[in-house]
Structures are given as structure tokens and as C-alpha cells.
Amino acid sequence: MLTPAQAQERCQALIERARRAGAEAGDAVYLASGAESVSVRLGALEDVERSESEHIGLRVFVGGASASIGSTDLADAALDELASRAVAMARAAPADRFAGLADEHLLARGPFPDLDLDDPAEPAPQELRRLAEEAEDAARAVQGVTNSEGGSASTGRGVVALATSHGFAGAYAASSHSVSASVIAGEGGALQRDYAWASTRFATDLPPPGQIGREAGERAVARLNPGRVKSGAMPVVFDPRVGGSLVGHLLGAISGSSIARRSSFLLDHDGAQIFDSSVTITDDPLRRRGLRSRPFDGEGLPTAPRKLVDAGRLTGWLMDSAAARQLGAVPTGHASRGGSGAPHVTAGNVVIEPGTLTRAQLIADIADGVYVTELIGSGVNGVTGDYSRGAAGFRIVNGEIAGPIAEFTVAGNLLAMFAAMIPASDLKIERGIDVPTLRIDGMSVAGD
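Structure for PmbA protein, as requested:
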């Protein structure tokens, strides 16, 4: 894996080759990662893995057309061939009046903010094994846990570099550390599985592995002997670990490409009040040590914090340059790049800001409802907003979490769900998308 400085130099060298080969404009992206993980099961070492990948991608523009190509070979001869092939492909491609680099005056200018994303610590395999064993041991120690799918710990590091033909060049490195455990509770045919995990940029920010393991074991035991729920309209409360998926549907719906294709259920809702006024959703790509932080986007534009929803009101779309041109707007610094192809939209660290009620207060007046801890399937229509997913969790009876339930479906329409959403005060920043407990009244629950 190259250093950020070396990766930036390779991207700039590839752009120069493309210009010499006849490209009118272009950009190059370097993506590399290396990871090591150790897994244990029932106290014994099960697997040790080491993976590495390195890729450089080139996008060129010739006569209004574009082409993308990539390679894992970074040698000079390979870059020469990559550049000439990309230009030849672009000359044979159809023109696209919306494609192109970001406007030069919008580009990010260094020095870029230091987001503290790269942990110099590199745990040895023995330390990863210790973490995995501690997590699994703590999970198996929970009364009622009868088997294990294992504990694991991993560490990784990646490098991202981007250079464009009109003056942008930047690179950064980011690390990751994670611990997880997955166990089974019960006997015979009455088995239940659950898990817990944590991931951080720095090893010192991880919670104790024993805490992660205990959480996995307690979750599995709590699911034993699930009942069924009767069908009907009732309040549905989403646990934070599944509630973030609702934000994912929002992000897809406000992507500029979805709006430009007129394939979003939020079409024509720019600036509209779509949530209760108590709901504010923020996007902060500059959070220090954030799991989705980055100092610039996939087109070389600056990233910045933003309210996606302000007191319930939608503030606009997330756009790369192509979508912005289609919509007659300005890109928002949300472009992301893969190893090949055009940019796509990705948000940063997204949070539904906490409300004023504790979880207990949020459910206190629910006589009969469900508390969802697991969602199954992908029955969501991004065009209409129709929502239907399999679920498991617990009943809520007279304001209290009651026994476990399984094999039911929760359904509604995302516009109505967003309008009815009430957040609790129990927000924890643990993932790239973080939400407190969320309550939505009037959803359809299909069980018995």
C-alpha cells in the first residue's frame, strides 16, 4: 500500500499520461486497503485472515463523452496503457452533456482539515485473538447461552487519493478497529441467535470486549420463546440499531440522481415539512474520528456540516456535479468514488438529533405496540415510499417492554412514517448513521 503522498503522486502521473494520450480532462482515484482479523469459536482459534487490495481508476473526457477504466498495476508501463485505452474508449462512447469534472472554482483548497482518522497503532494477531476471546467468553458466560458462532476482532487501514486535470490533488489515510460476538441461546428447536459489535477509528475508543460479548449474550437470551402478535394498526418503536435504516431510505430519496430521474418519493418536496418540528437530522463529514468522515469529496469539493432536515423541514438534495447540472443547481460536496465509473452520492456522519423524552417516557402511553430490534428483507419502494419489512422484537404492553415476538411484518408509507416519527433522548454516537429510539404511531403490523 502506498503512502498518501505516494498515492497522490501516482494519480497525478496518470492524469498527465491521459492528457498526453488525448484526453481533454480527467480525474484519477487511488483506493487501497489492508485488514487483519482473528476469529475464535468455543474458545479455540478458528481463523486468521489478512487481506490487501490496491486499485487506481481513471476517468477521461473527450468530445463530450467519457470513459472509465481501472487497474491494480501501478507501474509506469501499466499507467501508459491505462491512459491510452481510456481515451480510445471515450472516443467511441456517446456524448453526455451532464458529465464532467466539478467546476474549478468550487474545488477544495488545501491545507485540508485534520480529522484524526488514522490510528498509528497496529495490534498484533495475538492482541486481536485476546480481544476476540474476551468478547466470546463474556457472551458464553451469560446464563441461557448454549452455543457460539464466534467472536472476532479486526484492524484495518485504507488510503484514498484523488487528482484532477484542472488542479485538485489530495489524499488521506484512515484506520478501523472492530470487535464482535455472535451467540446462540436455547435448546433443541427453540434456538435464538443475536450479536453485538463495535467499530471505531482508534483502538483506544473501542468499548471493552467483555461489554460487547455480554450484550450479545443478553440479546440472544432475551429472544427465547418468542410469541406472535395480532395484526392491526399500532405504534411501532424502532431500536437504535435498526432505526438507522430509516435514515438510509431518506438519503436515497434526497440523492440528486434520484430526483433528476424523477424516481424518488420525495420528488417536489424540497423545502417541505416532512417530519415533526421536533426532528432535526444533521450530516457532519468533518467529525473527528468519525466513521464516515472525509476532508474532501469524490470530485475534490470541500465537505462541510449541514442540516439535512431542520426542525422537520427538508433543506434540499445531495448532489454530485452531474446531478447538479441536470437540476440546474450547485453540487453539495457529497460525491463519492469507487474504483471505476462516475461518482455517486454518499453522506457523511448522519444523526437524528435526540428528543426530550427518555425511552421509558416515549413508550409510557402505549397500551399495545411493538418494539423492533431486527428487520428482515428489503421491501421498500424508493419511488412510492411504500414500506414493508419482516421484523422481530418485543411487545409493548401498558407502557412496558413485554415478551419477545417474531415472524411479523411492519408496513406503512415512508412519508406518513416520517411525519409521525418521534425521537427519544437516548442517542449514542456509535456508527456512521446514528439515531435514538424512534416511535412511529399508526403503522400496520401483520402477525397472526
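The longest helix spans residues 4-21.
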